[in-house]
């Protein structure tokens, strides 16, 4: 497994977003605006981030 982590922050509201995008945000563990989580840097997570990148702030830790 990779030791790299990504810090994700939800920057925009989920109101009026596609249901798939809401599900992606929930999968990442984000709950509300300005909520920050750290997740492992894997291909699966990168794919999810690519779908909802317009809602997130992504930083490498």
Task: Explain what the structure shows.
This protein has 61 residues and is of the alpha+beta class. The chain has one domain: Ribosomal Protein L30, Chain: A (2-Layer Sandwich). It is 31% helix and 26% strand. It has a three-stranded antiparallel beta sheet, with no helix packed on it. The longest helix is centred in the middle third of the chain and has 10 residues, at 19-28.
Keywords:
three-stranded antiparallel sheet; 61 residues; 3 strands; Ribosomal Protein L30, Chain: A; 31% helix; alpha+beta
| Rg from alpha-carbon coordinates | 11 Å
Tell me the total number of β-strands.
3
| Silhouette | globular
Give the fraction of residues assigned to helices. Answer: 25-40%
CATH superfamily: Ribosomal protein L30/L7
CATH class: Alpha Beta
CATH T-level topology = Ribosomal Protein L30, Chain: A
Topology:
Elements: E1 5-10, H1 19-28, E2 36-40, H2 43-51, E3 56-60
Helix pairs in contact: 1-2
Task: Provide a short characterization of the protein structure.
The chain is an alpha+beta fold and 61 residues long. The chain has two helices and three strands.
């Amino acid at each position: 497994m990779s030791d790299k982590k990504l810090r994700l922050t939800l920057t925009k509201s989920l109101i009026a977003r596609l249901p798939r995008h809401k599900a992606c945000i929930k999968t990442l563990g984000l709950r509300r605006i300005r909520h920050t989580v750290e997740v492992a840097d894997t291909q699966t997570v990168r794919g999810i981030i690519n779908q909802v990148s317009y809602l997130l702030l992504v930083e490498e830790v």
